[in-house]
Design brief:
This protein has two domains: 71 residues, no CATH class; 73 residues. It has seven helices and no strands. The protein is extended, with a radius of gyration of 22 Å.
Length: 163
């Protein structure tokens, strides 16, 4: 889905005029954000929108912190997709499953160690738990993508990963 489509769908939830009023912007500008923008076409009616600009900030800075912040503002967390071309064409499902279980065990161990000494989880301990959780989520996503790509299919029937 393209950014203007995302904005258009989101604006439909409250109405463009209500969204513009809440943002203290003109409805015309919000309408333009919800239309396709093409810098190569001077007759295109859309305008570069905030989502495009945020994507540019992430691309130019190489920092994911903007995305992380936005996810936190939405009561969520960002998990990166695994690099598809880094997955082997044929992988051993048992060893990948064991790796996933080990990382879950590591998360539980991190939690256990955090509360063993005083019964509480302090800030630095919570940071370690977060790191372990992020690693587990990424591994689980890699495993899921491998399943979706058919990398555990019998007799070499796996699909070739796309980039």
């Amino acid at each position: 889905m393209r950014s203007y489509e995302v904005l258009r769908d989101a604006a439909e939830n409250v109405g463009v005029k209500a969204l513009a009023a809440d943002l203290r912007l003109s409805p015309a500008l919000v309408y333009k954000w919800c239309q396709e923008s093409n810098s190569d076409d001077p007759d295109a009616s859309g305008a570069r929108n905030p989502l495009d600009r945020l994507a540019d900030i992430v691309r130019v800075t190489g920092s994911r912190s903007v995305v992380d912040w936005l996810c936190q503002e939405s009561n969520g967390f960002f998990v990166t997709n695994p690099k598809i071309n880094s997955l082997p064409l044929r992988v051993d499902m048992l060893s990948e499953t064991q790796k996933l279980v080990q990382e879950f065990g590591q998360l539980l161990l991190t939690v256990t160690r955090s509360i063993e000494d005083d019964g509480f989880i302090e800030g630095c301990e919570a940071d370690r738990i977060r790191q372990s959780w992020e690693k587990l989520k990424t591994s689980a996503e890699s495993f899921t993508v491998a399943c979706e790509r058919g990398l555990y299919a019998p007799n070499g029937d796996s699909e070739q990963p796309t980039t």
